[in-house]
Amino acid sequence: MAKRIILVLILVAMVAFGGCKKEQKVVVVASKPVTEGYILAEMLTLLIEAKSDIQVKQTLGIGGGTSNIHPALIKGEIDLYPEYTGTGWLFVLKRASQQDAQKLYEQVKQAYQQEYGLVWSGLYGFNNTYAVAVSEGVAQRYALKTVSDLAKVSPALTFAANPDFLEREDGYPNLTKTYGLSFKAVKEIDIGLRYEAIKSEGVDVIMVFSTDGRLNVEPVVVLEDDRSAFAAYHAATVVRSQTLENYPELSGVLELLSARISNQEMIGLNYQVEIEKQDPKEVARAFLVKEGLL
């Protein structure tokens, strides 16, 4: 009888101990299938796991980017990911172009909270938007520093870009309208061949992204968009409100990247992964250590 009582007490204790076991904290971090997205997602993962007891499950390189990540975020299949203000405003919310970068951020942040229950963190600091670049020779020959300077000599030059940029309203049509550009010729090229194209004698001007890793090594000059033709694409973390309610400590962790990454720093990080073929996680870790965040 005594043995039976002891056995029952042991079983009760085991059940009680199991019931008191702390529930595991987990968030899902996603990214778009681009170098920058991988690096930023690794930074978020490293910070969350170092600064909290939350574990991270990664779902990186999601095909279709925002078009697939945003619905998954709303459904709760994903908790957070790096996004761009211009993408949120123009693609997700489908609002008219807003040229004031700070107003764009405030408006997209408010709309996401009201319509989707999603929160934008503070901006990382860099702006990965469209930009216009010319060869170093052309920049020197015509003393070009801004796109307004380019407009004065554009009839003598050839422009090249991928079909998507040439067709979309916020791309080439808006650029030419804003600055009155009128090129001698316009060529369609694959987006991956733009730097090779400008090295040829047949192309003088190309479209680039302002945080392209190759800008560190290619013989081009990026012109200032002095009339703000291109929408701002400042990056930040988008996270579910419910996730922040579940794990309030996460909010402070995500803010650690606010105002930490300049355009030049993002170019350098992309260069390390794209050109030097370094591991995105190790590049992210080295940056966080340099910034004193790890």
From TrEMBL:
GO molecular-function term, one example from the UniProt record: transmembrane transporter activity
Record-level GO cellular component terms: ATP-binding cassette (ABC) transporter complex
Leader peptide range in chain numbering: none
Domain ABC-type glycine betaine transport system substrate-binding: 26-288
Pfam families: OpuAC
Coiled coil region boundaries: none
The protein, known as: Choline-binding protein
Organism listed in the record: bioreactor metagenome
Chain's gene name: opuBC_6
